[in-house]
Amino acid sequence: MVVTDKPTKIVYHRPQALENVVTHYCPGCTHGVAHRLVAEVLDEMGETENTIGVASVGCSVFAYNYFDIDFVEAAHGRAPAMATGIKRVYPDRTVFTYQGDGDLASIGTAEIVHAAGRGERLTVIFINNANYGMTGGQMAPTTLPGQKTSSSPTGRDVKRQGFPIQMAEMLSTLEGASYVVRRSLHNSREVRRAKKAIRTAFEVQKHDLGFSLVELLSTCPTNWGMTPPQAREWIDSTMINAFPLGDYKISSAVADLEI
Amino acid sequence: MAKELIKGNTAVAEAALRAGLQAYFGYPITPQTELLEHLSARMPELGRPFVQAESELGAINMVYGAACTGKRVMTSSSSPGVSLMMEGLSYIAGTEVPAVLVDVVRGGPGLGNIAPAQGDYNQIVHGGGHGDYHMLVLAPASVQEAVDLTVLAFDLAEKYRNLVAVLLDGSIGQMMEPAELPPMQPLKDDVPDWAVRGTQGGEKRILTSINLDPPAQEVMNLRLMTRWQEIEKNEVRYKGYFLDDAEYIVVGFGTAGRVSLSAVRAAREKGIKVGLLRPITVAPFPNDVLDELTEQAKAFLVVEMNAGQMLEDVRLVVRGRKPVEFFGRMGGVVPFPDEVLTEIERLVKEPLTTEGHPRDRWLARLRETIG
Amino acid sequence: MQQEVIIAGFGGQGVLFAGQLLSYCAMDEGKEVTWIPSYGPEMRGGTANCTVVISDDEIGSPLVKNPTAVIAMNLPSLEKFEPLVKKGGVLVVNASMVNREVTRQDIKVVSLPANDIAEEIGSPRSVNMIMLGAMLANMDLLSLDAMDRALDAHLPERHKKFLAGNKAALRKGAEYLASEPVEA
Predict the structure, then answer these.
(1) B337-349 and B254-269 are packed helices; what angle lies between their axes, rounded to 10 degrees?
(2) Which residues of C51-61 are buried (b: 16+ CB within 10 A; e: fewer)?
(3) Which residues of A touch B75 (CB under 8 A)?
């Protein structure tokens, strides 16, 4: 250790909204990055102590152990309904759900579609890693055509198993959805863009402008059978083609929002 | 306050509102719909949240979320919708948050029909959702009782951090009777310590039903069961009619109970010493009074609008000491008093047995009647 | 003392409201009362009916197989409920809408052309009140004055213009007296 007498400047620290604990996420998984981005945004907005999170079922089932904020745990797919119940009772609190693709795009399609349709003042952080991570890498609604998973061992055959569901595109067609974008966590540039989108999404809620959702393409090296660098590369080379990054819905009120 | 002639569903809705209901989430289904409709007007009028959800699944999970804030919340539905809610009910029970469910029961199974029935007894009283939990179940037999028990439901839910169900059948939901509505209670402004609200500078709160460590989950289960024993000790409610000198005792809840009351009166006019035990809480079940009556009774007749669901709870208490007979109508058919009277008379005239199962004997008789 | 009334007819004949008015009146007179409609698919087409039970004591069943009085506003209602009227009870039949005589001899029967009467008194929508008046005149249940008070108190505001017509209809119906039952 080199001791200097130069004044120190803190350039990086754990956000107040995160607990100082070790997570259960696999090495190379970008859930941790997504958690951190949410936490940084809540801190920066001064909302950490005014926020109620809704965890879902999937790898992020224990998200509440990693955030230092009030949290509830929803049944599989029902986080938007549970969040609706909380937000209607507490309209002045920031309420967000943190859901994976099995949760949001499969078992919870009704709940997410209708929360968006009603224009619930919620923020949804939607982690898309193209498979069911927690249960060991089965095919998800977001699994790519041809992608091998533990329940599509020869690759997803679109004739028998259908096509991936593009949630951001689908939800963007709803009038109640004010801000719907897709970002990725596979490199530092995209991480910075993702944070900006998460900030916007929470600002949309804070300004009472309606439903906001940020879909984040996320790595799953363990279940994809890749190293973390390979997984990030796979997002860049392959997954992004099926799930193009972009702004799918920015209502005019959101476009006028100055952050 | 003066009585007003009011429909059961509307009365329950207005009673809940006056009991300080702070948020309602529901989904339309007959024969419960007037309840939701009434609140769709009244809740926004009072600046309180009302959401018509995308499904019963959505509704119960909205209730779950709102219940986690410690506010007075409820939903209402009818049989098929309540089946769909079972997931959420188990989670609510597993999270130990209070909530009220109103089930206006209709004919089933499946889509069934919209006529009054009591076929939800088992799914409400003996489970439905997964895991070891009990709902406290109130079974009114009149519009006034439905009003009073709805108010009570919120108090009990909060007292025990337990689910409370108000189990109506379609006829009480659709029926009009004079009833006195409670005065408007102010909304409670205090929030229980366990409720989420944002940390507001304090310690964070987590409300969850997951507990991956079996011994810890077992401790949680023990807590639930201990609480249930306390409820069993404190909250049994029933009403007895003509029981003092009764040799024959009819047991029925809700509409089957009041239909039986008519039959019991008619039988009394014929000189038969018969009484009626009408459980008001079907969970906890009035075991003790039934046990005492077993000493006094020559025989029991259980009357239900199902195939004998509460019957099993009665048999568990009587334990073969006295004959128990059963009469039920199913699928949305409401029995007339004269059918029950015939059964009472049969009880008196015909030789009785503690052998076999009363359901088998009833089914044999029913086949002769309805083919 | 308990009386049970079934009022039956086509949807749109004011069957449910007639039952409700009777119930309001009973409540205002300090009696126990239940009103229960038949509900469900049969409400479309077929007969609509409601059962009103009025008693001095806590009411048991809100449904009865053999009511003490039946108002049959049309033929299907007559077919369905004539056999069910309790012996010695009252059957009020809208003769304008049926093409046969009542066959029961052990009940009181009031037969009146209620549609024609309603036209005559210039109150075509008051058929239900005429029938109700005829029933009340022939049983010891509630007085016409009490019914007037119930109308005053409970007729929805938007229907207040029918108040006088309804009261007149009740009294017009009450002019029809029943044939006495022939003991078999």
Answers:
(1) 60
(2) bbbbbeeebbb
(3) none
The CATH number that domain A31-255 falls under is: 3.40.50.970
* Residue B371 scores a pLDDT above 80: no
Give mean pLDDT, residues C26-32: 97
* φ, ψ for residue A97, nearest 5 deg: -110, 155
Summarize pLDDT for C43-75 with one digit per residue, the tens.
445 678 999 999 999 999 999 999 999 999 999
Do B285 and B324 reside in the same domain of the chain?
yes
Does the structure show a pLDDT above 60 at B351?
Answer: yes
pLDDT at residue A1 in the model = 59
**pLDDT tens digits, one per residue of A132-141:** 998 989 999 9
The answer to whether B258 contacts C37, with C-beta atoms less than 8 Å apart, is no
Inter-CA distances, B26 with A216, B6, B33, B59, Å: 32, 21, 9, 5
CA C128 and chain centroid, separation: 7
- CATH code assigned at B101: 3.40.50.970
| Beta carbons of B114 and C32 less than 8 Å apart | no
CB of C95 within 8 A of CB of C111?
A: yes
Distance from CA of B57 to the nearest CA of C (A): 25
Q: Report the candidate in B192, B66, B22 with the shortest Cα–Cα distance to residue A72.
A: B66
Identify all chain B residues contacting A93, using CB atoms and an 8 Å cutoff: 197-198
Rounded distance between C-alpha atoms, residue A150 and residue A155, angstroms: 9
- How many other CB atoms are found less than 10 A from the CB of residue B216? 10
Residue B342 above 70 pLDDT? yes
Residue written as tokens 């004998």? B308
Pairing of strands A177-184, A246-250: antiparallel
| Lookup: tokens for A8 | 């120190």
Q: Do C62 and B258 touch (CB under 8 A)?
A: yes
Residue B55 has pLDDT above 50, yes or no: yes
How many whole angstroms separate alpha carbon B22 and alpha carbon B48? Answer: 6
Q: Same domain for B141 and B260?
A: no
**Residue A166 CB-half CA count within 13 A:** 18
B244 alpha-carbon distance from chain centroid: 27
The set of chains that have 3 or more CB pairs under 8 A with C is B
Task: Give chains near B: 3+ CB pairs under 8 A.
Answer: A, C
A–B CB contacts, 8 A cutoff, strictly below:
134
Average pLDDT over residues B97-117: 96
Which residues of chain A approach chain B closer than 8 Å at the C-beta? 48-52, 54-55, 61, 64-65, 67-75, 78, 81-86, 88-90, 93-94, 110-111, 113-114, 118
CATH of the domain at B299: 3.40.50.920
Q: What is the mean predicted confidence (pLDDT) over B317-336?
A: 97
One-letter identity of residue B272 = I
Domain segments of chain A: what residues?
A: 31-255
Preferred mutation among C21, C63, C66, C68 to probe B, highest tally of B CBs within 10 A: C63
pLDDT at C40: 53
- Is the N-terminal amide bond of A145 cis, ω within 30° of 0? no
pTM summary value: 0.93
Number of domains forming the structure of chain B? 2
Measure the CA–CA gap between A189 and A187, rounded to whole angstroms.
6
| pLDDT of C42 strictly over 50 | no
CB contact under 8 A, B337 and C64: yes
In CATH, the architecture of C2-173 is 3-Layer(aba) Sandwich (3.40)
Choosing among B46, B199, B200, B220, which should be mutated to test the A contact, i.e. which has the most A CBs within 10 A? B199
Domain hosting B264: range is 240-370
| C-alpha of A249 from chain center | 16
Nearest chain B CA: its distance from A237 CA (Å): 38
Q: State the smallest CA–CA distance between residue A74 and chain B in angstroms.
A: 8
Distance separating alpha carbons of residues A7 and C45, to the nearest angstrom: 89
